[in-house]
Amino acid sequence: MPAADRFAALPDAVLVRVISFLPVRDAARTAVLSRRWRHLWLRTGALNLDTRPYGRYFYEIREPLFRDAGAALRRLLPPVTSLSLLVAGEGGNDCQLIIGFSTYSRSSAWSYEPCCLDSLLADPALRRLEELRLRFEIKEKQSLRYIYQLRPEALPGHTLRSLDLACCRIEMPAAGAAAGAAAFPRLASLRLDRCSVPAHHLEALAGAAPSLATLRIEGLDTYFYDPKRTERSRDRVALRCPNLAAVSLADVHIPFDVDAPRLRTFSYRGQYTEFVFASDTTNLARADLNFTSYYQGQETELPFLVWRCLGSLRHAKTLKLTVPSIEDIVLDKNTHGDEQMAVVFQSLEHLELEGAVQSGRRKDQADAIAALLQCCPVIRELQVRFKEDRWSYLERRHGRTRTEFEVSMDSFNGRRSMLNDDDSRYLSVADLQGLSGRWFNCLHNHLKVVKLQFDLKELDSFEVSLAKFFAENCKVLEDLQIDDGRHTFSGHINFWVERWRLNALQRHNSE
Length: 511
Known about the structure:
By secondary structure, the chain is of the alpha/beta class. Helices cover 29% and strands 20% of the residues.
């Protein structure tokens, strides 16, 4: 019995939407499926170009690729609202040859010569373009600053709503250019991936898009060279976006000043840098800061930069903070203590902290946790994930591997301890100086869920002491989850956490 044609039950509008995601060659091939499908691809209003099916070398790709693009534009029913181009090559030079890149003349001055991609973007059929996506997929490490120089004034700014660029150079027209030459009144989404945009040109681009709601930047290069020396390179980026709701930054390597009163989500991943929000982000729902490393010589300023960023995000309801080491958020009270005291998250209910802990620094680690608890008075859920520090990882990776006999003896000793009910070493886990004995509003009135994740190596560790601290001091705690790694039944501390919790409740009831 032949299988039922489920596509036949779908309305034309759904089929057109599905076809709009296909590359232009595959979309055109759907016309042979049946009489009903013959003209569906012409109604998609989308032109998706992918160089991978055309061959490996530029001389096999360029001419047929842009020939197919021109033929499709002549056949697609207007308006064509979406253009997507994916160029794949071994390196940046290969991609430039595919798009016909040529902007440099043999004279001593820079000149501009249109390439095949410029001609495609200038096609009259794309005058009502709403979505533009230019991506470059490179196998080798990119050595060029950019692959394609996009001229913003050549785009249909009056209709463009989404702009997604990779490995492109963007320079806005000079101030003396015609008014509205590069204005984007409807642009709502902007993504720049490994793009080269000078700081003042990025500011001009954001200023030309008053409706911008989503901004995503990864790997920004702000290099700027002006042979006439009429402008200087900027060392900060100042963005004023009245309708910006979501910002995602990664590896930008330059301080940002953002004026976005309607911001709801903010995320950053990369080396330590500075972010300052010029306006109160009272609508901020989530903030995600992932500081992966820091510049050489920046060690003493790390806590100050972290707390300055946190101060700009004090209206967040959910915060995830990732640092190389937990100790990186401890401020020197003699120099920057006021910076930490001024930060209070009055609306924060969910906090996630992730970082490594170094042996021998229990006091600094306790001070870091205390600082976060102090500035989060109404927090309801806390998640802390302790990572392995760099030196322990290197020692485990390249050091001596434990024998099976040593592993077996540890397991045997753990079982013997359980059978002998030798619980003195569990009940005598040391308190944390800097945490124990202090009063925190969140522990007494709001904190109900605590989740700790770490790899248990020894009982006399900061992680175990912290688990004991929360078990004994959270007055309204409903759920305490401890994930201490892969161990045998007797190797986990969950049973002792329950004992600590029960003993604390008994002492509280007896008072």
